[in-house]
Specification:
The structure holds 2 protein chains of 2 kinds. By secondary structure, chain A is α+β, with helices and mostly antiparallel strands. Chain A is built from 27 helices and 31 strands. Chain B is built from 7 helices and 4 strands. By secondary structure, chain B is of the alpha/beta class. The longest helix of chain B has 27 residues. In chain B, 17% of the residues are buried. The chains are: A alpha+beta, B alpha/beta. At the A-B interface, helix 14, helix 16, strand 13 and strand 17 of A face helix 4 of B.
Chain lengths: 745, 247
């Protein structure tokens, strides 16, 4: 201690007065500090002004004092020895707390990793605020005493409660037009202050703070607040990655310039600089010029764990167009021609028009080039599939408000195994169900039974040249209506058929994704990468690639022939609950428990769009067939419609009363079907919703949206099932709607 | 929820906890499951803490022991996903590599065989017949179970050649579980005049149906005597080695 004292003497002449008097006695030192702190910051202020010492020294001293206070003598020695270390807590933020803004915020964030210094950062930030609070000294450096005084006073909840109440009063007193915008500050401020109290081990004060102010927050933050209420100790925060991410990332607020000026002026002229510091450290305020937004506008866009999206986040160019269809020669099928002879002519024209249409438009400016990402070439069987597809497309029913689809519901009875995932093949011939008992079952929807390929020995015996070789390779003895696939060791949460019907993917709570062969009905590969439950997986519409999203907050892009992922999409604050490919396979959209939706570019792995607005974890995503629009459904029961090109929300469909687990657009994009836990399937008029889309310059520039409350007009029908939640929807190629769910009496 | 006449106090506490956490709808069995979990967790922690306390030569378990026990358990059972900066860094690195080009039609596009689950999960063992042991003995197929990584061989018909073969078996990473060895008696018991040494096994491997399966290694050895082994059996042996490498 004496040695330490001596060193302090060397470094700081003025400062040693209080520290010397304290001697080697920590308590005495503290006593001195405490005695000098309350009200006497004026004197320390004068001390500060007289020293004129560089801030570095001051903050270093603050650190030393802090370490000594906590009996970390060795650290004190080491720090003293290495004094002058440039990066260590020498940020200018220690001093200039008002107006510097980004510096302090950056400093605060940079030092997150280092516990002591991060604690110090908060300490110095708050201390400088505290110092200036009674001082009214605008921009001065913190004094060692002041630092410690603030730290010891940080236990005083009055500080936090007082500041928060002060801010509340201020915001309630501003003009109406600004109030809605400034109220956005409440929630992140509240959470960050509460977390700081918890992090600094002020449990009782944290609880009191929480009780007093949690009721004021918006209703849609209720779930978050409940999680927070159970978090009272620092240890509770340790394992909670979402909260840690929340602390280190910046909560984005979009406020108009006028409102922002008001807030800034108020905070800087009052003593409430603690709030100002927290705002600078943890909040990112995206300022725009223009009219302040109304409460309803703000409510529509807010709700996510990370605030809203910055405007720059949604400015990258997105190629949302579809890829050109490959040209396939259509063999003239005589049987079909004869059957529909009266419409023979127009029918013939239609399929040709597809190929001609793609020839005529040179390149859709919004479509990615064919070679942007490598895609597998078409095999002969794929070409046959495409021909079948086009033939079916000609027989497709055109849907509309006056021509609603019929809905065929596949109910899983006696699913005591716990049905957790369902998928249909594109041609609707097979259904697969993933269950909580870790099995995957595949059923044949058509009368054709499921058969396995013969064993190797038998395959040698068949005649390979015969025409029906594809039937001969099948083993008749294994024909059955359904097949059970065993292999996972946890509930199966995601299922996806490959477009060529050869493979089936399943993702499970055991952290693996399994690829099953539908020829042999056995497991081929287990993809390990997520070490935590994988909530969703999907094959790309072109096959070969697939994506998965799980509890580890990342989504991964895989290819079937690589045992490691090709891309990792990281950025969400909480679990990735839903992953979907864009129809052109160049983009992937992920919905998460942090209530945001992100669109990722497969080529670069960057996040090109962030959509906020849902008030609950997102469980359903669907792209419109033309690739321009995205529909999303969450636990809040709302379906939101997004324009991908502009990055805006343009529609909100209210009606469901419970979580929406499935969304699907009809084959031509005219109808949007949504299925939910409230046992209903609802049909919405998508063409009308898209027509109403207006994007003038102002909207595109600022991201303001005017949502029309026309959910009722867009709702075409509500169909109840008999206490069966709808967990999957699928439009057949002819626009018949299939729905699936497990009967839940 | 219809409550019986009296619910034990613990269950009442659990119901209250669930209510505080905002869970309002749950099956009645959930209470039991939660109580079981709580009991198991707490006893594990306390037992661990007791071990730590005795290690530190303390007579009583105190709070530090409990804290240590909780920490260790957290790192072991209740791990949390990696932190965000780590994920961002890994993602950045991974996303820098361009997407690999796709080779034209090459059959089913699957990863290299070692990463697939398509390999046969049994292997044929070459069995060395000793002159003395094989003479006139009736052998019965015996099933023996051994851990994959441990003992190199299981009791065979006294043929030591097995060791050389089975020691090659490293643990295939993906296949866990137990290894069964099945001894199939040779079709004919003839006495071989030459001394059998581990290096020249009399072996002939019969490849049984390579079908795809789960996680058990099945070693099937057949004792088939071949008089003209010598070089041929050596060759066979190399094949065995190749088979092992392919695993």
């Amino acid at each position: 201690m004496a040695a330490v004292q001596g060193s302090l003497v060397e470094e700081k002449d003025i400062k040693t007065e209080p520290s010397n008097d304290g001697g080697g006695n920590n308590n005495a030192n503290d006593g001195r500090v405490l005695s000098t702190s309350p009200g006497s910051s004026a004197s320390s202020g004068s001390n500060k002004s007289t020293t004129g010492a560089p801030e570095d020294q001051q903050t270093l001293l603050a650190v030393l004092q802090f370490l000594r206070k906590n009996n970390l003598t060795e650290s004190v020695e080491i720090l003293r020895r290495e004094a002058g270390l440039p990066e260590d807590s020498l940020d200018p933020k220690g001093g200039d707390s008002s107006g510097a803004g980004s510096g302090s915020a950056a400093g605060g964030v940079d030092l997150e990793g280092v516990d002591a210094s991060s604690l110090l950062s908060r300490v110095t930030v708050s201390s400088s605020a505290a110092a200036q609070a009674p001082n009214k000294v605008a921009e001065d450096q913190p004094d060692v005493n002041v630092v410690l005084s603030a730290y010891s006073q940080q236990g005083d909840p009055a500080l936090y409660e007082v500041y928060y109440s002060g801010l509340k009063k201020f915001i309630e007193s501003v003009l109406d037009c600004h109030r809605a915008e400034l109220s956005q500050v409440f929630y992140p401020l509240f959470v960050h202050m509460y977390l700081e109290l918890v992090y600094n081990n002020h449990e009782n004060e944290a609880k009191a703070f929480f009780e007093k102010f949690s009721g004021d927050q918006e209703c849609y933050y209720e779930d978050d607040l409940r999680v927070l209420s159970s978090l009272t100790k620092k240890e509770h925060m340790r394992g909670n990655e979402t909260l840690l991410d929340f602390r280190t990332s910046k909560f984005v607020l979009r406020i108009s310039r006028d409102s922002y000026q008001l807030l800034k002026r108020h905070l800087q002229e009052r003593q409430n600089n603690q709030i100002w510091n927290i705002i600078q450290e943890h909040l990112y305020i995206d300022i725009f010029d223009g009219m302040p937004r109304s409460k309803s506008q703000i409510d529509a866009m807010s709700g996510s764990l990370a605030g809203e999206a910055k405007r720059e986040a949604n400015k990258a160019k997105v190629y949302y167009g579809l890829l050109k269809e490959p040209e396939i020669e259509l063999p003239l099928d005589d049987e079909d021609e004869e059957a529909e002879n009266e419409e023979g002519k127009p029918k013939k024209k239609k399929p040709k028009k597809d190929s001609m249409g793609s020839k005529s438009k040179k390149q859709d400016p919004n479509a990615p080039s064919q070679t942007r990402i490598p895609l597998p070439e078409l095999k002969d069987s794929d070409k046959l599939d495409k021909i079948m597809y086009m033939k079916e497309a000609t027989k497709r029913i055109r849907l509309g408000p006056d021509n609603l689809p019929s809905i065929c519901f596949y109910t899983f009875l006696n699913a005591y195994q716990g049905l957790t995932a369902v998928d249909f093949t594109d041609d609707s011939s097979l259904i697969a169900g993933g269950f909580a008992d870790s099995t995957v079952r595949v059923w044949s929807v058509t009368p054709k039974k499921l058969r396995r390929v013969k064993s190797a020995a038998d395959l040698n015996l068949i005649d390979k040249e015969s025409d029906d070789v594809l039937e001969r390779i099948m083993d008749e003895k294994t024909a059955s209506e359904s097949k059970i696939l065993y292999g996972h060791s946890g509930p199966v949460y995601g299922i996806s058929f490959s477009p060529d019907r050869n493979y089936l993917l399943s993702s499970s709570e055991d952290g693996t994704i399994r690829l099953w062969s539908l020829q042999t009905f056995t497991c081929l590969v287990g993809y390990k990468g997520h070490n935590y439950p994988v909530w969703d997986t999907q094959f790309s519409p072109h096959g070969y690639y697939f994506i998965s999203g799980g509890h580890d907050r990342v989504a991964r892009l895989w290819a079937t022939d690589h045992y490691q992922p090709l891309r990792m999409f990281s950025g969400h604050l909480a679990d990735v609950t839903c992953t979907r490919f864009h129809p052109n396979s160049n983009y992937v959209v992920t919905g998460s428990s942090d209530r945001t939706i992100r669109l990722w570019d497969v080529l670069s792995g960057n996040c090109v769009r962030i959509f906020t607005g849902h008030k609950g974890p997102i469980h359903a995503l669907a792209f419109s067939p033309n690739g321009k629009f995205l529909a999303s459904g969450a636990t809040d029961g709302r379906v939101l419609l997004w324009d991908i090109g502009h990055g805006l929300m343009f529609g909100e469909l209210k009606g469901h009363t419970d979580t929406i687990y499935s969304l699907r657009f009809s084959r031509d994009g005219e109808i949007l079907a949504s299925g939910s836990m409230d046992n209903t399937v609802r049909l919405w008029d998508a063409t009308k919703a898209f027509d109403d889309l207006e994007t003038d310059d102002f909207t595109a520039a600022t991201g303001h949206i005017h949502l029309q409350d026309n959910s009722q007009e867009l709702l075409l029908g509500t169909y109840m099932s008999k206490s069966t939640p709808v967990i999957h929807l699928h439009f057949t190629r002819r626009n018949l709607l299939l729905a699936a769910g497990a009967y839940n009496p | 929820m219809s409550a019986p006449k009296t619910i034990p106090k613990d269950a009442q506490v659990m119901i209250q906890i669930l209510k505080d956490m905002g869970i309002t709808e749950y099956e009645p069995r959930v209470i039991n499951q939660m109580l079981e979990f709580t009991y198991r967790y707490v006893t594990t922690i306390i037992e661990d803490a007791k071990i730590y306390a005795t290690h530190a030569k303390k007579s009583n378990v105190d709070a530090d022991d409990i804290k240590l026990a909780i920490q260790c358990r957290m790192d072991q059972s209740f791990t949390s996903p990696p932190p965000r900066d780590f994920l961002l860094e890994v993602a950045r690195q991974k996303n820098q590599t361009p997407l690999p080009l796709i080779k034209p039609y090459t059959g089913p596009r699957l990863p290299p065989d070692r990463y697939c689950l398509t390999a046969p999960n049994y292997r044929l063992k070459s069995v060395q017949k000793k002159v003395s042991s094989s003479a006139g003995r009736i052998s019965v197929p015996r099933l023996s179970v051994g851990a994959v990584s441990s003992r190199p061989s299981t009791p065979t018909l006294g043929t030591p050649s097995v060791q050389s073969v089975t020691t090659k078996v490293g643990t295939p990473v993906s296949l866990t579980g137990q290894r069964f060895t099945v001894q199939i008696p040779p079709p004919s018991q003839t006495v071989t005049t030459k001394t059998t040494t581990p290096s020249t096994p009399a072996v002939s491997n019969v490849l049984i149906n390579p079908s795809l399966i789960g996680s058990k290694n099945i070693l099937i050895t057949t004792n088939m005597v071949s008089q003209n082994s010598g070089g041929e059996s050596l060759k066979r042996k190399h094949e065995d080695d190749d088979d092992y490498d392919a695993l």
